[in-house]
Amino acid sequence: MGGQAKKKSKAKRKENRGGASGHTLMSPQERMKAKMQEKAKKKTAEKYTVDQLLEKTEESMDNFDFPMAKMFCQRALDMEPTNLSVLNMLGNICAELGDVDKAKQVFLKAVELSPEEGHSKYMYLGQIHAGMEAVQYFSKGIKVMLNAIDKQAQEAGDMGAAAMPSEPSISAKDVSVAFCSIAEIFFTDLCMEEGAAEKCKEAIEKALHYDQHNPEALQLMASYLFSIDNTEEGRDYLIKSVSSWLPSLQKEEESSACVEQPEDEEPQNSIPPYESRITTAKLLIEAEEFELCNERDVIICLLLSCTGACVFVCGCVFFLSLCIDCCLVLICSSNWNSPHFPRVIQYLTACHWNALKCFFLQKLSVIFQSLEGAGIRSPALLFSACFPPQGILGHIIQHQLNYC
Fold first, then answer.
1. pLDDT tens digits, 252-288
2. Alpha-carbon gap, residue 197 to 120, rounded angstroms
3. If you write DSSP's letter for every residue of 139-169 in order, what string do you get?
4. What CA–CA distance (Å, rounded) separates 159 from 288?
5. CA distance 370 to 402
6. Fewest C-beta atoms under 10 Å: which of 98, 114, 245, 404?
7. pLDDT tens, 326-369?
8. Any stretches that span the bilayer, and where are they (predicted)?
9. CA distance 201 to 223
10. DSSP-assigned letter for residue 261
11. Where are the chain's structural domains?
12. Residue 362: what pLDDT?
């Protein structure tokens, strides 16, 4: 009897030890960290409100301290797990930090809480996903935007034209950009699907319907027309696209060259991002608009930079060959006395030397001959500054410099 009772008490003590030690698998440092985090949460709840934490989050984001912004925003979410503003902000921060899984989790939670309001979460989910799943998220986001636009129009009519909206309004351009995202998916990921070409064209047409001056939509239409060998009409759309943003770029370049800029000067938001402008340069070359290309040295530099990056990552000779051939065509087409020219040479030299130096130097010799014919000798100074004559590669480059 006594022995049996003793065994039971031992078993009970073992159960208590096992049940009470929820942190048995954690190291002492991890247990200490967990306790400190719990204390920090309690201290935060006592010290800050959610609104104050969001202010801290925005302040950290303004200083580009996204890890700190994530910490403040996560604490705000711990206090109010169903706050949509906090969820959207945390999702954006995670996306900026490259934490795709966390961003996806947060945005899906926001969708669960409010599926019919707030389009931005659907746009981010569309970017995170691929294929038809991405199309579905973009399509849902478009539906939410169109409903919001109708609601805005109704509220504006009820309140009067002079009334200012309480929240940032959604524009037709936002809808156009979303349709462009769908078109790009059918143009790339889903290009082999049945009816992909028709769906791509339909999405581009809808993008132009909501914003006929959207340079991205115009360029997508040009790409589509080039793909079906309708070169002339594609060239028209391409030139129309470039004409819609090039004056802004030129104005920006002129203002940046001035010592003093006007205080009321606003940034030109109509200028497409670098990725789009690289595609523009490629399409201009394909359309044989060399004079148009030559006026856009910055775009050409971006083309060469992108190609050089591809070479550096995958060591693909094809991309390097395409890059240099395009450069040669542009050099030979007209006089390349451009202030941006040293950047072109710098991008060319940024390629993967170890894998491609022999091929590159053969092409480099041809480039130098073309430059010499055009009366341009500035690359030699750039080379001598960037590459000291050390090792066999340095001697080869120095030989090319002496040739120039």
1. 656 655 544 444 444 445 677 656 766 776 677 677 6
2. 27
3. HHHHHHHHHHHHHHHHHHHHH-TTPPPSSPP
4. 53
5. 15
6. 98
7. 555 555 554 445 554 555 555 454 444 443 444 454 555 555 55
8. 298-322
9. 10
10. -
11. 39-110
12. 53
Give residue 204's identity as a one-letter amino acid code.
Answer: I
Residue 175 scores a pLDDT above 90? yes
Report helix, strand or coil for 48: coil
Cα gap 155→318, rounded to integer Å: 56
Residue with token string 């947060």: 106
CB atoms within 10 A of CB 51: 10
Virtual torsion, Cα 138, 141, 142, 145, nearest 10 deg: -160
Instruction: With beta carbons less than 8 A apart as the criterion, state whether 297 and 338 touch.
Output: yes
Q: Residue 400's closest CA among 365, 363, 350?
A: 365
> Percent of the chain, pLDDT > 90?
31
CB 91 within 8 A of CB 121: yes
pLDDT of residue 89: 92
Contact 310, 266 (CB under 8 A): no
CB atoms within 10 A of CB 342: 15
Cβ proximity of 328 and 293 under 8 Å: no
Query: Which among 34, 32, 75, 21 has a CA at the least distance from the CA of 53?
Result: 75
* CB hemisphere CA count around 308 (13 angstroms): 21
Q: What is the pLDDT of residue 76?
A: 92
204: exposed, middle or buried (Cβ count in 10 Å: 0-12, 13-18, 19+)? buried
DSSP state letter for 212: T
Looking at residue 271, its pLDDT comes to 72
Q: How far apart are the first and last CA of the chain?
A: 104
Name the nearest CA neighbour of 48 among 87, 75, 82: 75
The whole model's pTM is what? Answer: 0.61
CATH number for region 39-110: 1.25.40.10
DSSP state of 266: P
